[in-house]
Amino acid sequence: MVSEQLIMKARQLSEFQLLTSFPGIGEISAALLIGEIGDLSRFSNHKKVNAFIGIDIRRYQSGKYAGQDHINKRGNPKGRKVLYLIVKNMIRQQKAAPNHIVDYYYKLKKQPQAKKDRVATVACMNKLLKCIYSMVRNNTKYEYSYTVSKDQ
Prior knowledge:
Radius of gyration: 16 Å
Strand order of the largest sheet: 1-4
Number of helices: 8
Strand content: 5-15%
Protein backbone atom coordinates (compact mmCIF):
# COMPACT_ATOMS: atom_id res chain seq x y z
CA MET A 1 0.00 0.00 0.00
CA VAL A 2 1.23 3.52 -0.79
CA SER A 3 0.61 4.92 2.68
CA GLU A 4 2.71 2.15 4.25
CA GLN A 5 5.57 2.89 1.85
CA LEU A 6 5.32 6.60 2.65
CA ILE A 7 5.43 5.89 6.39
CA MET A 8 8.43 3.55 5.96
CA LYS A 9 10.36 6.27 4.09
CA ALA A 10 9.39 8.96 6.61
CA ARG A 11 10.39 6.82 9.63
CA GLN A 12 14.00 7.11 8.51
CA LEU A 13 13.93 10.87 9.18
CA SER A 14 14.43 12.38 12.62
CA GLU A 15 11.50 14.79 12.09
CA PHE A 16 9.08 11.85 11.97
CA GLN A 17 9.55 10.96 15.66
CA LEU A 18 9.26 14.63 16.63
CA LEU A 19 6.02 15.10 14.68
CA THR A 20 4.41 11.91 15.96
CA SER A 21 5.16 13.00 19.55
CA PHE A 22 2.64 15.82 18.99
CA PRO A 23 -0.86 14.74 20.15
CA GLY A 24 -3.20 14.54 17.17
CA ILE A 25 -0.49 13.89 14.55
CA GLY A 26 -0.43 10.25 13.55
CA GLU A 27 2.00 8.39 11.36
CA ILE A 28 0.17 9.08 8.09
CA SER A 29 -0.28 12.78 8.89
CA ALA A 30 3.37 13.14 9.86
CA ALA A 31 4.53 11.36 6.69
CA LEU A 32 2.27 13.51 4.49
CA LEU A 33 3.43 16.72 6.17
CA ILE A 34 7.09 15.78 5.77
CA GLY A 35 6.39 14.88 2.14
CA GLU A 36 4.78 18.24 1.41
CA ILE A 37 7.06 20.55 3.41
CA GLY A 38 10.31 18.67 3.02
CA ASP A 39 13.35 19.56 5.10
CA LEU A 40 12.38 22.29 7.58
CA SER A 41 16.01 23.21 8.26
CA ARG A 42 16.21 24.88 4.82
CA PHE A 43 13.96 27.69 6.10
CA SER A 44 15.61 30.48 8.09
CA ASN A 45 12.48 31.21 10.18
CA HIS A 46 8.88 30.08 10.71
CA LYS A 47 7.47 32.92 8.59
CA LYS A 48 9.10 31.44 5.52
CA VAL A 49 7.49 28.08 6.28
CA ASN A 50 4.12 29.87 6.50
CA ALA A 51 4.75 31.52 3.14
CA PHE A 52 5.76 28.18 1.62
CA ILE A 53 2.50 26.61 2.78
CA GLY A 54 0.52 29.73 1.84
CA ILE A 55 -1.00 30.83 5.14
CA ASP A 56 0.85 34.12 5.43
CA ILE A 57 -1.38 37.21 5.64
CA ARG A 58 -2.18 39.32 2.58
CA ARG A 59 -3.15 42.88 3.46
CA TYR A 60 -4.73 45.45 1.19
CA GLN A 61 -4.39 49.11 2.16
CA SER A 62 -4.86 52.30 0.21
CA GLY A 63 -4.89 55.67 1.93
CA LYS A 64 -7.25 55.42 4.86
CA TYR A 65 -8.87 52.24 3.53
CA ALA A 66 -7.77 48.97 5.07
CA GLY A 67 -9.30 45.86 3.52
CA GLN A 68 -9.98 42.64 5.33
CA ASP A 69 -6.96 40.38 5.84
CA HIS A 70 -6.84 37.07 3.97
CA ILE A 71 -4.35 34.26 3.68
CA ASN A 72 -2.12 34.44 0.63
CA LYS A 73 -2.79 30.94 -0.80
CA ARG A 74 0.27 31.21 -3.07
CA GLY A 75 2.01 28.30 -1.42
CA ASN A 76 1.58 24.55 -1.43
CA PRO A 77 -2.17 23.74 -1.52
CA LYS A 78 -1.67 20.08 -0.55
CA GLY A 79 0.46 21.07 2.43
CA ARG A 80 -2.21 23.57 3.49
CA LYS A 81 -4.86 20.85 3.25
CA VAL A 82 -2.79 18.40 5.32
CA LEU A 83 -2.25 21.07 8.01
CA TYR A 84 -5.96 21.95 8.00
CA LEU A 85 -6.94 18.30 8.45
CA ILE A 86 -4.37 17.84 11.24
CA VAL A 87 -5.77 20.82 13.18
CA LYS A 88 -9.37 19.66 12.66
CA ASN A 89 -8.37 16.17 13.83
CA MET A 90 -6.75 17.65 16.96
CA ILE A 91 -9.94 19.55 17.77
CA ARG A 92 -12.05 16.43 17.18
CA GLN A 93 -9.84 14.27 19.44
CA GLN A 94 -9.20 16.83 22.15
CA LYS A 95 -10.29 14.61 25.04
CA ALA A 96 -7.95 11.76 24.05
CA ALA A 97 -4.86 13.94 23.72
CA PRO A 98 -4.89 17.54 24.97
CA ASN A 99 -2.48 20.02 23.43
CA HIS A 100 -1.99 23.77 23.36
CA ILE A 101 -3.23 24.12 19.75
CA VAL A 102 -6.72 23.03 20.83
CA ASP A 103 -6.52 25.34 23.85
CA TYR A 104 -5.64 28.22 21.52
CA TYR A 105 -8.55 27.35 19.20
CA TYR A 106 -11.06 27.56 22.04
CA LYS A 107 -9.45 30.74 23.33
CA LEU A 108 -10.01 32.34 19.92
CA LYS A 109 -13.60 31.08 19.80
CA LYS A 110 -14.33 32.44 23.31
CA GLN A 111 -12.95 35.98 22.97
CA PRO A 112 -15.32 38.94 23.33
CA GLN A 113 -15.61 38.91 19.54
CA ALA A 114 -15.42 35.23 18.73
CA LYS A 115 -13.45 34.32 15.61
CA LYS A 116 -15.15 32.35 12.86
CA ASP A 117 -14.29 28.67 12.64
CA ARG A 118 -12.03 28.94 9.57
CA VAL A 119 -10.22 32.01 10.93
CA ALA A 120 -9.52 30.23 14.21
CA THR A 121 -8.43 27.09 12.36
CA VAL A 122 -5.97 29.01 10.16
CA ALA A 123 -4.59 30.75 13.26
CA CYS A 124 -4.09 27.29 14.81
CA MET A 125 -2.37 26.12 11.61
CA ASN A 126 0.00 29.07 11.98
CA LYS A 127 0.69 28.22 15.62
CA LEU A 128 1.18 24.54 14.79
CA LEU A 129 3.72 25.38 12.08
CA LYS A 130 5.61 27.63 14.51
CA CYS A 131 5.66 24.83 17.07
CA ILE A 132 6.75 22.18 14.55
CA TYR A 133 9.47 24.47 13.21
CA SER A 134 10.76 25.08 16.74
CA MET A 135 10.63 21.38 17.63
CA VAL A 136 12.62 20.42 14.52
CA ARG A 137 15.15 23.24 14.96
CA ASN A 138 15.78 22.37 18.62
CA ASN A 139 15.32 18.60 18.14
CA THR A 140 12.82 18.34 21.02
CA LYS A 141 9.67 16.28 21.38
CA TYR A 142 6.33 17.82 22.29
CA GLU A 143 5.51 18.20 25.96
CA TYR A 144 2.12 19.65 26.94
CA SER A 145 3.12 20.62 30.49
CA TYR A 146 5.96 22.79 29.13
CA THR A 147 3.68 24.71 26.75
CA VAL A 148 0.92 25.19 29.33
CA SER A 149 3.26 26.85 31.79
CA LYS A 150 4.67 29.08 29.01
CA ASP A 151 1.28 30.22 27.67
CA GLN A 152 0.00 31.41 31.04
